[in-house]
Amino acid sequence: MKKIIIGAFMLGAITGATAVKAQKVNSLSAKEKKEGWQLLFDGKTTNGWHTYLKDAASPAWKVVDGALEFDVDAKKTGAPGGDLVTNGEYENYELSIDWKISEGGNSGIIFSVHEDPEFKATYLTGPEMQVLDDDKHPDGKINKHNAGDLYDLVKSSQKAVKAVGQWNTAKIVKKDGHLSLWLNGVKTVETTMGTPEWDALVANSKFKDWKGFGKYAKGHIALQDHGNKVWYRNIKLRVL
Under 8 Å CB-to-CB from 89, ≥6 apart: which residues? Predict the structure, then answer.
């Protein structure tokens, strides 16, 4: 009888743990709510997002199994693509976001995006935290182009990306220009925007002649359409 009771208890504990884990996806705990976190993605719709320079989200961005998925096939059949951006703009904040990339895929989390017809793409103003299959995408062999890097500006302090098909958790903390990037609990990048150090990084990058790049303290957050299937979920932000 004791074995049956213990077995039932363990099964209940496992089931309960699974339930708790499931509740955390695209939701806020009581502690997070108290700390001022807000959900940027409700897990069901694209509410709060739109395609860059458009009024609404492109149908190529779909919600599938609680994740924002970029549907490459939909784009091939005529649905307009484009980067997905937040309706809101943010300056000082902590952002947490889960991502998963397809085999050989490429995407990115772009921030401080200034949305203006003068700039035809999000990356013309916003720096990017790289999202990549390091092993099978050509960028994986390029310095400062790996997952977790501040794209073309700062190489990750160490490799922290998980295997393709697994969820990664990225964090971007931006406060008064000071910027730190985290991937799966590892701090990959730390720098400060608007400083001589920052100007030197930009001057030695592909962005050196882009007049609007990294110039805006406040801006939108974007999920990049790089032509490959990618998934995002658990998108949370708190203002600092």
Answer: 218, 219, 220
Residue owning tokens 């720098």: 191
First to last CA, the chain: 54
Supply 121's token pair: 């793409």
Q: Which residue stretches of the chain have pLDDT < 50?
A: 4-6, 8-9, 14-20
Q: Alpha-carbon distance 35 to 175, whole Å?
A: 16
Closest CA to 212 of 109, 121, 86, 130: 121
The H or E element containing residue 106 is strand 106-113
Cα distances from 144 to residues 10, 153, 180, in angstroms, run: 46, 6, 15
**In angstroms, what CA-CA distances link 126 with 102, 110, 138, 219?**
23, 6, 22, 8
Is-above-0.70 flag for pTM? yes
CB neighbours (10 Å) of residue 100?
Answer: 20
DSSP 122: G
* Helix or strand holding residue 22 (H, E): helix 2-24
Residue-wise pLDDT for 41-92, tens only, equals 999 999 999 999 999 999 999 999 999 999 998 888 877 889 999 999 999 9
